[in-house]
Write a structure and sequence with these properties.
mainly beta; 16-stranded antiparallel beta barrel; Porin; signal; 16 strands
């Protein structure tokens, strides 16, 4: 079923690619890049469990992480093709049930209608196998882009999305989605972006809407569950001696199933700076406030779709080039959240050291 959904998701885009390839534009220019990394990890909460303790104990485990990525771009006289693909694997020593294999890819084809207007198609897919969160996330969109100059860019898109969660088929959904993204560059250092997305999620025939007062799987309403997911926000970026970014996002998931509605406010920031001895420091953090008007039932897709592993996070990475194509890296990150009604806490720290190769 997932394989067929992937094929349907990319079918319109593959048609466009075939048409562009058949044109054999003589002025084509191609460029690409490859990247690979290998890291040794120490994970303080390998099973990603909630606990009534502030610090995990026996959940620690070592893991080996491998990641490969490729991206390419083809520029024609009035058209452009962009593609990227990533493949990652993680192997644990003790918690082997948490071993994961993740693939993600996206392809975009665009065509200029004039000096400032363009249209295109984009398809993306992500597939995660292993662990407690095995899913596929697929989507195809058509977009219209307006860019009168280098300062302003506006993209409006519409398409469809399909989400398949293998451990619990009642969490599978699909439906149309629309979005808008705007960016304005004040100068070469300062820029401001705004974004918004809406997705109508229609679930299968098996999941029924939960009535008020139902805390379990019994007594479900006969109607099919339907959700509406809204995301809106803005971000500011500074590029100078220090690279800075600040983003605010609001998410509202409205559902006809009792206990599945949530509202989330999230502020995130990132920074990058060059240190002595050719060392680069990258840091990012986020703070979130989530409200559950009907209570907390921990529906799978509440955490899965965003995959942010909690409301609050902080991470840092140090990188130093050993050669022109090889970097030595060390990183640390912490993710945490707390459920207010039952005092359960989710905390996870990951320490890593490894190498990244670029071509």
């Amino acid at each position: 079923m997932v394989r067929g959904a992937v094929a349907r998701s990319f079918a319109p885009l593959l048609l466009v690619l075939a048409m562009l390839a058949a044109a054999r534009a003589p002025a084509a220019e191609w460029e690409g890049a490859l990247r690979g990394s290998a890291r040794l990890l120490l994970d303080t909460n390998a099973p990603r469990d909630y606990s009534d303790r502030d610090t995990p104990g026996a959940e620690r485990d070592f893991a080996l992480s491998l990641l490969g990525a490729a991206e390419g771009r083809g520029s024609f006289e009035r058209a452009q093709l962009v593609g990227r693909y990533e493949l990652g694997a993680r192997k644990y020593v003790l918690y082997q049930e948490e071993d994961t294999l993740v693939q993600s890819g996206a392809v975009e084809a665009s065509h200029a209608l004039g000096t400032s207007l363009g249209i295109g198609l984009e398809g993306h897919a992500k597939d995660r196998r292993g662990g407690s969160r095995s899913y596929s996330d697929l989507g195809t969109t058509a977009f219209l882009e307006y860019a009168p100059d280098v300062r302003l860019a506006l993209r409006v898109r519409a398409g469809a999305r399909r989400f398949v969660y293998r451990p619990d088929p009642t969490a599978n959904f699909g439906g149309p989605e629309v979005g808008v993204l705007g960016r304005y560059r004040f100068d070469r250092r300062h820029s401001l972006s705004v974004f918004g997305d809406w997705n109508a999620r229609r679930f299968g025939t098996a999941p029924r809407a939960r009535p008020p007062g139902a805390g379990g799987s019994s007594g479900l309403l006969p109607g099919r569950r339907q959700d509406g997911a809204l995301t809106a926000g803005a971000s500011y970026t500074y590029r100078g001696p220090v690279a800075l970014g600040l983003t605010y996002a609001f998410q509202e998931l409205s559902s006809n199933s009792y206990g599945e509605t949530l509202r989330r406010h999230r502020v995130s920031a990132n920074a990058g700076v060059r240190l002595p001895w050719r060392v680069t420091l990258l840091a990012q953090g986020s703070l979130g406030l989530t409200q559950y008007p009907d209570g907390i039932y921990l529906s799978p897709e509440i955490i899965l779709v965003e995959e942010d592993e909690g409301q609050n996070s902080l991470s840092a990475k140090l990188a130093r080039p050993l050669t022109d194509t090889l970097d030595l890296e060390a990183s640390w990150g912490i993710w945490s959240t707390r459920l207010p009604r039952n005092a359960l806490t989710y905390t996870r720290q990951v320490f890593s050291v490894g190498f990244t190769w670029r071509y």
